[in-house]
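Example 9 (inverse folding). The structure is encoded as follows.
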């Protein structure tokens, strides 16, 4: 093989590796986005419950004042 052929093969291997890494990172970003979205929805629910007065925050965490069926 010529030097240029070896260099081309090395570049193809690097591109293949980078494509694989990019696919893995894309999957991770999608997972983190979904988790972030779920946490944001949960936070909105907590904020709404606080505004309604159904929960208050005290020492040691959340204190529920009235049962959810009220």
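The amino acid assigned to each position is listed next.
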């Amino acid at each position: 093989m010529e030097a240029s052929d070896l260099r081309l093969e090395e570049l193809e291997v690097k591109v293949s590796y980078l494509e694989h890494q990019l696919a893995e990172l894309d999957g991770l970003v999608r997972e983190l986005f979904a988790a972030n979205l779920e946490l944001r929805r949960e936070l909105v629910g907590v904020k709404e419950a606080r505004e309604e007065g159904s929960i208050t925050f005290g020492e040691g965490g959340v204190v529920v004042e009235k049962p959810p069926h009220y």
